[in-house]
Amino acid sequence: MTGLPILDITGLSKSYGAIRAVDGVDLQVHRGEICGLIGPNGSGKSTFFDCTSGLARPNAGSVKLDGQDITGWSLNRIAREGRMLRSFQKTVTFGALDIEENLVIAGQMFTFPSVASTFGFGARSRARVDGLRQRARELIRLSGLWDVRTQPAGNLSGGQQKLIQFASMLMPEPKLILLDEPMAGINPKLIERVVEAIRYANEQLGVSFLVIEHNIDVITSICQRVAVLDQGRKLAEGTPAEIMRNQAVREAYLGG
Amino acid sequence: MSLNESSLPLPGRDLRLPFGLAVVVLACCAPLLLGNYALHAVIISLIFLLPAHGLNLLVGYTGLLSLAQAAFFGVGAYVSALMAVHWGTPFYVNLFGAGLVAGVLALPLGIPALRLRSTSFVMCTLGFVIIGQAVAKNWISLTRGDMGLSAIPKPYFALGPASFAVSGTVGFYYLVLAIAALATFVVWLIVTSPAGRNMVAIRENETLAESVGVPTWRYKLVVFMISATFAGFGGSVYAHYLTVVSPLTFQMSNSTLMLIIVLGGGPGTISGVVFGSLLFVGLSEALRIAPELRMVAYGFCLLALVFWFPKGFAPLITRFWTMLRGRS
Questions:
Q1: Coil, helix or strand for A246?
Q2: pLDDT, tens digit, for every residue of B179-212?
């Protein structure tokens, strides 16, 4: 863990009217790390994610990705040029399309710079699409979704759609992935598979993660470091074990 | 490597090529098979196919319901008519002029309109048609108001010293057929491209598309412009076919007809829209045998469609293509 942090957030703030949803939060994610972000409901985790990923504009503060200031960039630009991707709490896929098509869409923007290649003219751009298809099939097999690959993604179970979403985010060879409650609403058997998928991406593909999750067991098993938000502010930060022992965190969760 | 990776054996033969050839032969022989009036109906269908193709890109592929097609259709018709009457430019110049003006005009209209969400966007596009009609009626020095522009020459082509005019229903049929075929090919190029895939992504889920790097705003604007360009082409051909244009070109029912073609034929499919334009425009023309009952009968046909084919003919067409490909 040397050099610049992959994600460096300083003084991030966002208010909705009089409500300060996020209030001057600093957070760093180091290269190759899986960092957890926890906090009670309404503590500002999701707003924090939205401001970091470009879905919402922060009122103050800065977001640096790999040393580059990306504050105020749009969601699509951060994904395309910064290779930082995010998932959504409510699982979403391109429902009418099959899994392969879902993955190809997620992968393609990153390699189509010109108008000619946008419209798929020429052998080179066709080769690129073929490459994406190959990579998509590989990821489909790794996710254990090979048998259902021809079905419309919208017909599959919530857990399977989570896996599709996760595989989609791996398509463009991301540097950093923001996961918004990856375990919410899926059955325990699939939790194991999602954890495996995260570990695989982290160890084999070198992707760093920032994960919002309510499932404490998952957080303690995969994260090297955890930050706690409460009422829009960072309450604590440390290893999972330290956080578990922290009195202030316990009080925040128990409403003390 | 997994065992089930090899594709499934095909139970039947691939019949797409023979089917395609049959369609081509049928299209080329249509003047021999059809009477003059039926051929006229087919010509109108093929003219409406152009704005319908554009609308399909917008509604069927990108998921934006628009009623503005008649406005751009009207603009195309007037631009073409004015160019032909005042400058005497050949048909293909008018055609491109009409498409260009309609497409460029879509930019300042699209920028505010596309910021609106679903229903508001539909209302806004409806407004464009009404404004278009008002302008055509009241800018009398240019458009001659309700009298419209008449004596638009039949299409003629001038290449160097040689020139020839397309006259008669049969000649016009082949001209429109060529334009419609070309437009269909262009739409096919767009929707099967990486850009087409991104359009579908926007239709399926805009935020998700954005999150995987699709610049959705730019895409929607460009598709809106392309869609208007197609409508402009259609308007141009329409003006040259009827040889008159009036503010009625901007009527709301043109927009609804284009929408019926797309939604009824099969949004998000090319063959569905081709089928839809032949069916719905043909139906509308065929019902002219009973002018008093025409719109009533048309309404009942639409009701029947909604009840029996709530998703349009798209599912039927998909099944048909699967059958042709020889898979069960």
A1: coil
A2: 999 999 999 988 988 888 899 999 999 999 989 9
Residues of B in contact with A176 (CB under 8 A): none
Quick check: is B1 in a domain?
no
- pLDDT at res. A255: 61
Looking at the domain assignment, is residue B311 inside a domain? yes
Beta strands A68-69 and A60-65, pairing class: antiparallel
Asked if the structure places residue A54 within a domain, the reply is yes
Is A144's pLDDT higher than 90? no
Q: What percentage of residues in chain B have a pLDDT greater than 90? A: 29
Choose among B276, B317, B293: nearest CA to B48: B276
Asked whether the beta carbons of residue A76 and residue B214 sit closer than 8 angstroms, the reply is yes
Minimal Cβ distance to B194: which of A93, A108, A172? A108
What is B196-222 written as a DSSP string?
HHHHHHHHH-HHHHHHTT--HHHHHHH
Q: For residue A112, give the nearest of B194, B201, B211 by CB distance.
A: B194
Number of domains in chain B: 1
Domain limits at B304?
A: 12-324
CB pairs under 8 A between A and B: 89
Task: Tell me: pLDDT of B223 over 50.
Answer: yes
CATH number at residue A165: 3.40.50.300
Pairing mode, strands A84-86 and A176-180:
parallel
Of B193, B198, B211, the CB nearest to A75: B211
Examine residue A1 and state whether it is found in any structural domain, yes or no.
Answer: no
Each residue's pLDDT tens digit, B241-257: 988 898 888 888 888 88
Q: What is the pLDDT of residues A226-239, one digit of tens each?
A: 998 888 888 888 88
Structural domain count of chain A: 1
Decide if B198 and A97 are in contact by the 8 Å CB cutoff.
no
Q: What is the CATH number of the domain that holds B49?
A: 1.10.3470
